[in-house]
Design a protein that fits this description.
Layout: H1 2-33, E1 36-37, E2 41-46, E3 54-56, E4 59-60, E5 67-71, E6 77-79, E7 84-87, E8 91-99, E9 104-113, E10 129-145, E11 150-151, H2 154-166, E12 175-192
Parallel strand pairs: 2-9
Antiparallel strand pairs: 1-4, 3-7, 5-8, 6-7, 8-9, 10-11, 10-12
Length: about 200
């Protein structure tokens, strides 16, 4: 009976030791199989010869799982469906990689620009002038016929008088001066639609 108990204890102990030794191996194997990005940090430099430098990012151990790539700032860098990163302008962005059923991976991309800064140079605008119009109410002196009609100009009154005379219509000879309010549209100023300067 004692021998049976000893053998049982020995078997259980050996099994426990084997299980303990196997666990790190299993964990290590699982870690090796987990998706992994080939780069965590990348620096791209824009030059006169290379205005849009690129880098290819790759994910290992995807086992055919769906991979989605996104850029946190598309104005700085863009990324294709296959992980190709293209620099656009100076700045930084984070490329995020989502592997279905696994943790999210990230790569920080810094973009530098070694081209000379020309922002301090004076820029000559090729002005495109546009007229700015305003409405204004003015008062003009017109003529009023005895029949009640008002004419802004002497020519209009004379034409009316001749017409009435030809038609032998009388009572149109008395003329009075009258103030006539009139809204006119005039050019207030001109401005450049590109830079906004006035002239």
């Amino acid at each position: 009976m004692k021998n049976i108990i000893k053998k049982s204890i020995t078997v259980i102990t050996v099994f426990a030791i084997m299980l303990t030794l196997a666990m790190p191996v299993t964990a290590e194997a699982a870690a090796k199989k987990a998706p992994k990005l080939n780069k965590s940090k990348v620096t791209l430099t824009i030059t006169k010869k290379k205005t849009k430098p690129t880098v290819q990012l790759k994910v290992k151990n995807t086992a055919g799982k769906k991979v989605k790539w996104t850029s946190s700032n598309k104005k700085v860098v863009t990324v294709s469906k296959k992980g190709k990163v293209v620099a656009k302008k100076k700045g930084s962005a984070v490329i995020t990689v989502k592997v279905k059923g696994s943790k999210t991976l990230r790569c920080k991309v810094t973009v530098k620009d070694t081209r000379k800064n020309t922002s301090n140079k004076p820029v000559t605008c090729q002005h495109k002038w546009v007229k700015h119009y305003v409405e204004e109410t003015v008062t003009i002196t017109g003529s009023q016929c005895a029949c009640g009609q008002i004419f802004e100009t002497a020519e209009e009154w004379e034409a009316h008088s001749i017409e009435m005379g030809l038609n032998r219509e009388y009572g149109h000879g008395s003329v009075a001066s009258v103030d006539i309010p009139k809204t006119i549209t005039k050019c207030d100023y001109e401005y450049c639609e590109k830079c906004g300067v006035r002239k």
